[in-house]
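Q: Give me a protein?
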Amino acid sequence: MFVDAKQFDIAKIAESGQCFRMTENEDGTYGLIYRGRYLEINYHPDKAAYELECDEDEYEKIWKDYFDMSFDYEGIESAVDSEDTFLVNAVKYGSGIRILRQDPWEMLVSFIISQRKSIPAIRTSIEKLCALCGDEIHTKRGIKYAFPSAERIAELSDDELVSCSLGYRSKYIASAADAVATGKIDLDNLFNLPDNELREELLKLYGVGVKVASCIMLFAYHRLDSFPEDVWIKRAMENEYPGGFPAELYSGYAGIMQQYIFFYMRGTYKRQ
């Protein structure tokens, strides 16, 4: 199954800070694990397209929605205020990023883990947790592991959680797993709530603050006005928008602009 590379850049998506189980293989392809499935993605420059190793039926049922392929990112990019040079450059730099529609439980755990951790460290902790209690997925690249259910994680001991390099976050993960496994919170039902109520419900969970809740809203519930502020975004706000980001200009998709800014700031810092 081939997907046009216009407005779709898997390398940028993988490094955009929204997903932690999409990684580059040694041969330059990308592997992705989502809800117990492994997908390999390979760029074909002669076609200016990506090959997704799945049939059309699987693409239509799973990956089209996951990659948000029905959303008009080109239109969003063209709507940027031309006088905002910083944002124009950020959008140009990050063009090809799409906001993934990811699993709420995985995002809840992943962004709890993300607190005060670098992206490589987040990935390491998540992979340890998946190897510890996730179901095996047999792929051409060997055994991979699905993201474990709340019930599986709730059964782990404190020592087992700590062994995943979670540190103080282990108690937050244990509490979240218990809440979901016992039905104290139904993450799927939260899809029906308006943004303010969704945020309030997420903030009730132990260890979930405003930034983590905002990430879950954007990357699991596709609330595109959610604008998470991490160290990179705060630096951009201080340097470029001391009076505040003009979110009203981008109502309905400010969170997409946040992704462009995050990716641009992080990439610029690396170059420097």
In short: The longest strand covers residues 37-44.
